[in-house]
Amino acid sequence: MTTHDLPRGMIRASGAIGTHEGYMPGFGNDFETEALPGALPQGQNSPQKCNYGLYAEQLSGTAFTAPRGQNERTWCYRIRPSVHHTGRFSPIEVPHWKTAPNVVPNVTSLGQYRWDPIPMPESDLTWITGMRTMTTAGDVNIQVGMASHVYLVTRSMEDEYFFSADSELLVVPQEGRLRFATELGIIDLEPKEIAIIPRGLVYRVEVLEGPARGFVCENYGQKFDLPHRGPIGANCLANPRDFKCPVAAFEDREVPSRVVIKWCGQFHESHIGHSPLDVVAWHGNYCAYKYDLRTYSPVGAILFDHPDPSIFTVLTAPSGQEGTANIDFVLFRERWMVAEHSFRPPWYHKNIMSELMGNIYGQYDAKPRGFAPGGISLHNCMLPHGPDRDAFEGASNAELKPHKLENTMSFMFETRFPQHLTEWAAREAPMQPEYVEVWNQLQKKFDGTPGVK
Ligand SMILES: O=C(O)Cc1cc(O)ccc1O
Ligand SMILES: [Fe+2]
Question: Residue 87: what pLDDT?
Fold first, then answer.
């Protein structure tokens, strides 16, 4: 039985409350799921012999001794142990997938940058060969920092699998539909959804509708978590039940296969004789999941002023310093603007955090033109930015009646570490050389006389 020919409705998930279309709801839950009846041991993790002749194996996403609230691990019951899914490794080149530290001589990251949508590829590109790194930050060797990528995918991986020992991947599709066939089950992903693929999980990416383009935040550090809501209370922003984790699905397929591993920025391949997606049952809280961005309930200003964008945080990956994230994933989506006597768009600012933004669809309020769907901008550590002239003049003179921002979905990967451009981002991606000029036409209005100008 393979995940290809397994009807989705036939996938069994026992013990999962509210199992829905092959997914189980809830963020950080302790899930249990089995694709064959009785495959999951009850009452213990390591029976002397497992049902169906399966091997028991633990996948640890945190240190064994991590505090209970953060401790994540999953027990897998699989046809072969993972040591059979990785043989001898030989190095391979994946030239466009870069890892921090990657400070390129003669490439300056000091500046405000913006790119047109990266053109859709005409060549044959998979999830691995189609990954294009834009920026890197921090250092993978000490498990801090991140990288931002654009993916351009036209071809499914066939008998080919991948895992990253370096990172958890946050995937933000912008066009096309992808299937992530993972050790723990299947995630289908399309624009307006995101997925998290945890460190160490083996998967294959198939194109359901191509070409596919999107953004990836590669998190070298502590896992993404839900932000605390503070005085907001128990609801709104991203609600835990809207996160969906796949039910178990396995492949028993003996064909020559290739496994690619990313480890400390290096890529290696290994050849094996079967599919590694052979987990028949699993239980635990270390898993892949997806989330529909349309279920994000923004909370904002309902009387005056423009709050910090942290109110729109979907997920946050801590850095060890309280309140200072390794990465915040922030969503700017449709919402009502009602603030009185206020300049409603983002203010002008300089930020110790580095802000990489991507447009999923529509128009972003601070940049009515030039920041197109599929486009990217980077406002690095302490580099000033804010609304362009049209946005400033428009918002300064607008009648302040309730106004709905429609057809808009952009996001920000915000990190405490400066982001360094890759050579590809600086020299090959469609950078807009004239971007800084969007602020040139802002007029000096001050003339020494009092009064609103
Ligand atoms: O720079 C940006 O456009 C992102 C942003 C949005 C906002 O509402 C406030 C601050 C901020 O950095
Ligand atoms: Fe900003």
Answer: 80
* pLDDT tens-digit map of 221-232: 999 999 999 999
Q: Are residues 60 and 72 in the same domain?
A: yes
pTM: 0.95
pLDDT of 18 > 60? The answer is no
In a shared domain, residues 288 and 320 = no
**Contact status, residue 357 vs residue 377, Cβ threshold 8 Å:** yes
Of 293, 318, 337, the one marking the end of a domain is: 293
Q: Has 96 been annotated as catalytic?
A: no
Residues 282 and 216 in one domain: yes
pLDDT tens-digit map of 246-275 = 999 999 999 999 999 999 999 999 999 999
Which of 352, 355, 388 is the best mutation target for the ligand 1 pocket, counting ligand atoms within 8 Å of the beta carbon and taking the most? 355
Residue 366 lies in a domain: yes
Q: Where among 293, 319, 341 does a domain terminate?
A: 293
CA-to-CA dists, residue 202 to 58, 73, 249, 261, angstroms: 14, 15, 13, 9
Of residues 279 and 20, which shows the higher confidence score? 279
Ligand 2 centroid distance, CA of 82 (Å): 43
**423, containing H or E segment:** helix 423-427
Q: Is the bond leading into 211 cis (omega within 30 degrees of zero)?
A: yes
Span from the CA of 307 to the centroid of ligand 2 (angstroms): 12
Give, for ligand 1, the residue of 305, 412, 415 to mutate: max count of ligand atoms closer than 8 Å to Cβ: 412
Q: Is the CB of 346 under 6 A from ligand 1?
A: yes
Does residue 218 sit in the same domain as residue 157? yes
1 in a structural domain:
no
Is the CB of residue 309 below 6 angstroms from any atom belonging to ligand 1? yes
Cα 357 to ligand 2 centre (Å): 9
Report how many domains make up the chain: 2
Rounded Cα distance between 138 and 301, Å, is 34
Q: Closest Cα to atom 8, ligand 1: which residue?
A: 346
3-state secondary structure of 274: coil
Q: The domain containing residue 388 runs over which residues?
A: 296-438
* Ligand 1 atom closest to 366 (CA): 3
Q: What is the pLDDT of residue 13?
A: 41
Residue 344: CB within 6 Å of ligand 1?
no
CATH number at residue 203: 2.60.120.10
Q: Which residues, at least 6 apart from 7, have a Cβ–Cβ distance to it below 8 Å?
A: none
Cβ neighbours around 98 below 10 Å, total: 24
